[in-house]
Amino acid sequence: MKNLYFSFFAIVLLFNLSCDNKSSEFDNLMDEEEVKNSIELDTDLDFLETLSLNEFERENSRNPQSLPDCVAITVIIQQGFKEITLDFGEGCQIGNKNISGIMTLTYDPNIDEQELLITKEYTDLTINQKTINGVKTKLRELSNQNGNPQFTINANININWESGASLNREGTRIRERVSGEQGVWSTYVYHLTGNWTNTFGNGNTYSWEIIDPVVKESICYFFVSGSLTIEKPNVSGVLDYGNGGCDNTAIFTSSDGNEFVITLD
User: Residues near 50 by Cβ (< 8 Å), separated by ≥ 6?
Assistant: First the structure.
C-alpha cells in the first residue's frame, strides 16, 4: 500500500511540475495572463457588439424590447440625429454575464442608406471584472461585395481590470454577417477580420492580426474557429480557435513550434 501511495504521489507531482514548466515556458515567450486577458476581452467585446447591434436592429424595426427590464433604454430623435442609450445601472444580468454602466449609440436616422456611420461610446461599462471606456466608430454597409451586411469597426478604448491591469486598444475589425435569417439573432453567424494593438499599462505591447477569418456563432459565447498572429518584440506565434466546436479553449503555437493550450473563463 505504501508503494502504491508513493507511486500515485509521484505521478501527481510530475503532472504538476509538467504543467508549471509549460506555464513557465509560455511566460518566457509572452505574459500568459496578458494574452489570456486579451482573448477574454475579445470575447466580451464581441458579446457587447452583438448586444448593441441587436438593439440597433430592434429599435429601427419597432419590435418589442428584447433586453431585460434592468436595462433602461432611452431614445432621442432629432433632425439628422438619433441616439440610443443603454443604461445597465449598477448591475444587470444578460445571459450569464453581469453588466453595469452605459453604452450609447448615435447615428443618422436615415438607416436605409447603403452606408451608415454609427458611433458607440462606453462609459464605465463593466463586464467580467473589467471596465471599458472609449469610443468605437462603425461603418455599416447594407451589402458588401459578397452581398452580406458588414460593419467596419474602428476602436480606441481603455480597459481596467479589477486585478489592477490596464490596457489601451486601437485597431480595426471587420464584422461580416455570412448567414442567418434577418431579425432572428440566434441564427446569425459572423466572420471577423482585422488587426489591432493592445498596449498594457506596464508598457508591454502586442500586435494582433486575423489571418484566417474568426467565426462567431450567436448561439456560442466563444469564437468557434479561425486564427490570429500575435507579435511582441522579438516573439511571435499563432492563436487558433479550433475547427467549429463551441468550447472555451484556444491553442497558441509559438514561432519555434511549441504549443500551449489556453483555457478561457
Answer: 185, 188, 216, 218
- Please give the single-letter amino acid code of residue 229: T
Convert the pLDDT of each residue in 34-60 to its tens digit: 999 999 999 999 999 999 988 888 887
Rounded to an integer, what distance in angstroms lies between the CA atom of residue 47 and that of residue 40? 11
Give the C-alpha separation, 83 to 72, whole Å: 13
pLDDT at position 173: 97
List of residues 6+ apart from 56 with CB closer than 8 A: 84, 105, 118
What's the whole-number average pLDDT of the chain? 88
- Per-residue pLDDT reduced to its tens digit, 129-162: 999 999 999 999 999 999 999 999 999 999 999 9
In the chain, domain spans: 31-55+115-263
- Long-range (24+ apart) CB contacts under 8 A made by 221-226 are 221/43, 221/47, 221/95, 221/246, 222/43, 222/246, 222/247, 222/248, 222/264, 223/42, 223/43, 223/46, 223/192, 223/250, 226/192
Q: What angle do CA 225, 226, 228 make, to 5 degrees?
A: 140
